[in-house]
Amino acid sequence: MSMENGSKKWRFQAKNSQQQQEALTTANIRGVLGILMGNLDPKDKRPVIPLSHGDPSAFPCFRTTSAAEDAIVDALKSAKHNHYSPSVGLLPARRALADYMNKDLPYKLSPDNVYLTAGCSHAIELALTVLAQPGNNILLPRPGFPYTEAIAASCGFEVRHFDLLPEQGWEVDLEAVEALGDENTVAMVIINPGNPCGNVYSYEHLKKVAETARKLGIIVIADEVYGHMAFGSTPFVPMGVFGSVVPVLTLGSLSKRWIVPGWRMGWLVTNDPTDLLRDSGIELNLSDMEDINDDIDFSLKLAREESTFVLPGTTVGMKNWFRISFAVDPATLEDGLERMKAFCLRHAKKQTILN
């Protein structure tokens, strides 16, 4: 540090620009959920319906398989893994994961091709940090996982968005990808199974994505909701207790999250609530609703009036849409859908109800 007018002055400056700092702040889904929580009516004694969350662990029907739980307990009790591990992960765990993935690959991975991370967020940080160079840009999906955009901005990337097409099952707009790419584009990100849309890409579409990336000379970063993130030939696999991977995989119990295919839908009131089971992304038709300004307003008022949370689409780049999660038990889901139907009927324009 240096001295100026008798006071100390720090020599370093913040790495991120104001715009990057704002991106990191506004991309916090948990922050949005905190705002919704603060908007609840304390007089409403009904249980809160959390259709906004994406973590099924809170509900017994989604409990982790006992084989995985036992493997973690056994790894902890063995005392074989209670030490500093290599930054890339323990060799037995990396070997087990390579063997597991080799079952579906036309080529063979070695343990040296596997890098274990502390969750998918860590994997995103590593992949983008490796690619970051001054002047580079990266192509991200819209809607998409906001954490990826925040990390890309903090790494200095110019972020460019390609749209996902709701009328085509949220497939990638490949023409837009080709139009956005240039000599400074280093990668594009796809999320499959989709987050936040709940879609699952066909093999044929993934092949077209790969062909488009090859034409542009860029890397595809495939961020998979249920298990691993692949970067080039090196899989990044998030595991909480690295030493427990071997018995879990040996027992064949590597679990995947329940994924629901997504289709575009119209306004809620015009459909039976059970139709929502086909979709995780719902578009709002604001012209048919009274006193609802946008998706943020919809989400806040739904929380206030029905103690039911949905995630406003603005959070993931889709204004005037909202996302619901099916990671709740069936009775809770049915209750939440009925509350949403009641809310929409209450805010519907009279002419809409008559029609």
Task: Please tell me about this protein's structure.
- This protein has 355 residues and is an alpha/beta fold.
- It has two domains: 18-61 and 259-354, Aspartate Aminotransferase, domain 1 (Alpha-Beta Complex); 65-250, Type I PLP-dependent aspartate aminotransferase-like (Major domain) (Aspartate Aminotransferase, domain 2, 3-Layer(aba) Sandwich), CATH 3.40.640.10.
- 35% of the residues lie in helices and 16% in strands.
- It is built from twelve helices and 15 strands.
- It has an eight-stranded mixed beta sheet, sandwiched between helices. It has a three-stranded antiparallel beta sheet with strand order 12-15-14. The protein has a two-stranded antiparallel ribbon with strand order 1-2.
- Helix 1 (18-26) packs antiparallel against helix 6 (146-154) and helix 5 packs parallel to helix 6.
- The longest helix is centred in the C-terminal third of the chain and has 17 residues, at 330-346.
- The radius of gyration is 23 Å and the shape is globular.
- One of its GO terms (biological process) is L-tyrosine catabolic process.
- This is Aminotransferase class I/classII large domain-containing protein.
- Keywords: Pyridoxal phosphate.
- The modification N6-(pyridoxal phosphate)lysine is found at residue 256.
